Amino acid sequence: MIFAVAVVSGCATVDPWTDTRIESEVKARLVAQHERTVESGEQKEKAETVARSVPGVKRLVSTLEVRSQWQ
Length: 71
Known about the structure:
Blueprint lengths: L1 H4 L10 H17 L8 H12 L19
Helix pairs in contact: 2-3
């Protein structure tokens, strides 16, 4: 999950409470996916799609890196 959470760092609305709500919802949806690391391009795209689907997300800056389980 460390890598997936990096997707939402850097919310930038005028209201910090809105940023907090959006970030919390993105994290909750990513946790619900039951994936802790990003081991393929497909998983990276899935995490980004989940983050974009949260109401209020206007821009996504992905810092996800694909990592094999052996790293």
